[in-house]
Amino acid sequence: MTTNLFDAIIFGSGLSGLACARKMALSGKSVCVIERSDQLGGHLPSFERKGVRFEVGIHYIAATDPGNLFAKACSEIKLSPEIIPLDTAFEKMHNEGLGVSFQMRSPFHLYIQDLIRDFPEQEKPLKQFEQDANDLWAIANKLSFPFTKINLIVALFRSRNRIRLLRIATSSLKHYLKNILQLPPPAIEIISLQHLLIGVNPKQLSAAIYLLVHRYYFEKPCFIKGGGDFFTKSLLHPSVSYVTGENAKIYRNRKKENGRFRIETAQGDIFAHNVVWTPDPRLFQESSNISLGTIKNIQLSRVKEPHALVIAYFATTQPLNEVGMENCNHWLMGTLNSENCYGEETASVNPTDWASRAPLYVSTGSLRDPLAITTSHSQGAQGVFQAMFLLPTKAEIWGVSDSKKYKVSESRGGHAETYRSHKTMVLAAIKKRLINEFPLLETTLCWEDLATPLTHERYLFSRSRNGYGYAPTVADFILWRPSYKTPVPGLYLCGAHIKPAHGIATTLLNGVGLGSILSE
Q1: Of 249-258, 265-274, 482-491, which gets the smallest average pLDDT?
Q2: 488, 468, 471, 520: which is closest to 14 by C-alpha?
Q3: Residue 283 has what pLDDT?
Q4: Domain ranges of the chain
Q5: Cα–Cα distance between 361 and 18 in angstroms, integer?
Q6: CATH superfamily of 5-80+226-301+472-518
Q7: 8-state DSSP, 123
Q8: What is the pLDDT of residues 382-440, one digit of tens each?
Q9: Nearest Cα to 454, choosing from 351, 365, 360?
Q10: What distance, in Å, lies between the first and last C-alpha atoms of the chain?
């Protein structure tokens, strides 16, 4: 470090932290980024196991066209991602029980066209669904970022369709689809598909938020060349100080002339006029003696039983298109539909049973990103992909509740053998479903591993044991999420946990937005 006094010290080097630091640096501000892990990037970087590299942080995003918020944010921080468009059919749903498939096609009107083809008697409500989603998307896309609930409410009231849109805004997804549109269960199942990776019951999910997110994914979906590694490298700025492997602590600085905050590090004290906290706000107290008041104990999910993501990683000896996987993402729909997937009874389900029944999402990024497969891959790998499902976090899902002990042998008081056994059984259940859908995988799979909720807690410091956001309800998105400012002057929150939502594009926007504020 060339100085011990900074305009801002940013805790966390994920997407928002790096974007905030870069924006401030481009404005001539002095910034230091402190990362608890040994590498920069948070959830962004790829990882390598036995010579096989996996992209884990970014699957695909949308609305990257010039004029959209994501493109504007990239322009502000001089970031030029290379866009790889997905095929028109960018997702495909396979119903394992019925043996039928449905393709999600972009742009949005083609998706609606296909729904009407399959449910011709529902043409009127499906057209209304299309109009509602388009109206909400048009409103949100005109708002400046970061927008507040007041901005959104004012925009809704100014809309020509305000009565209808306000009715949607106060409805849950289930009520909207079942009572307002009066759609039959098969159509509801397809339309509500994309909420499944969020992990929230459709009774609790905001219809308006869902429609916005759902509509967003049809806005020219694409992949970023290099994925998370691209962002980790490209967001760095030569004038920013980056510190890794540092579990620093934040204190108020009594000598105000030397900045508001004193940061205690292993290399000595540094000082800052402002501090930006990007991890889960509930973790703030572990790294500070400063109280955030009501934010300190904020409940970041109103859902009774939040779900955690389980991710299986696979490598194949043939390119994925040669084993039957199309250039799109795949949903394998099991015996659990979107209505009963998040019911109260799920807390007691064991992980093997859940892996056999829950909706399984297969991400085939290596078909799109030429950097995903390299000549340096060992194991004969020519294709890599991920399969993901959600599991209730309350259940004793891996035979151990303490992530510090899941790799410790039984002789030393740990649970390594039980944990490995659970992982093996879960992988076997996932493979059975994949091979049933893509039979050539049986002879081409050459490597596999599993990231469990305990993995996320251990390596990503995820309090919710999740690798992907958390369950959003109406309150979570608009009312209860914290904003940038805190009760402590000069202390700010940023990242996937603040208003208005989590997600790749929004997290980047949050970082650029706060960086702009702190650069004034």
Answers
A1: 249-258
A2: 468
A3: 86
A4: 5-80+226-301+472-518, 123-218, 304-460
A5: 29
A6: FAD/NAD(P)-binding domain (3.50.50.60)
A7: H
A8: 899 999 988 876 656 676 667 778 888 888 888 888 889 889 999 999 999 999 999 99
A9: 351
A10: 24
